[in-house]
């Protein structure tokens, strides 16, 4: 099994709703780590081109950069099926977007194994998409 990891950082604010209370709006420098895994390398001895994953991750994350996540789909309360903008929710959303964005561009046996989001030092959430899709 092989793995590659790509990282990207963006800055955004959020306010979680925990139980009946909404916490004050506050910001983070969100560090996103994507792990691509697969059992074999291609003819160029690559699992996957880093640049392919970097470009897709940057595009997804840049839509949140310098924003308030609570105002952006899918976290906005007005969005259908609104998601609380927790680190866990952000990780899952990015994973699903990345899987859709990369689509068939990923080598046949490579897959998005996990997406981790760190919102503060020592505070990380990781989402593991089901094998075979989001």
What does this structure look like?
With 134 residues, the chain is an alpha+beta fold. It has one domain (2-127): Tetrahydropterin Synthase, Chain A, CATH 3.30.479. 22% of the residues lie in helices and 35% in strands. It has two helices and seven strands; from the N terminus they run ββββαβαββ. The strands form two sheets. Strands 5-1-4-6-7 form a five-stranded mixed β-sheet. It has a two-stranded antiparallel ribbon with strand order 2-3. β2 (17-18) and β3 (21-22) form a beta hairpin. The model has no long low-confidence stretch (mean pLDDT 94).
State the helical fraction.
Answer: 10-25%
The separation of the N and C termini measures: 21 Å
Averaged pLDDT, please? Answer: 94
Q: What would the principal axes of the Cα set say about the shape?
A: elongated
From the 3D coordinates, which CATH architecture would you assign?
2-Layer Sandwich
Helix/strand-derived category reads alpha+beta
* Separate helix tally: 2
CATH superfamily: 6-pyruvoyl tetrahydropterin synthase/QueD
Q: Give the H and E element order.
A: EEEEHEHEE
Low-confidence stretches: none
Radius of gyration: 15 Å
Strand fraction band? 35-45%
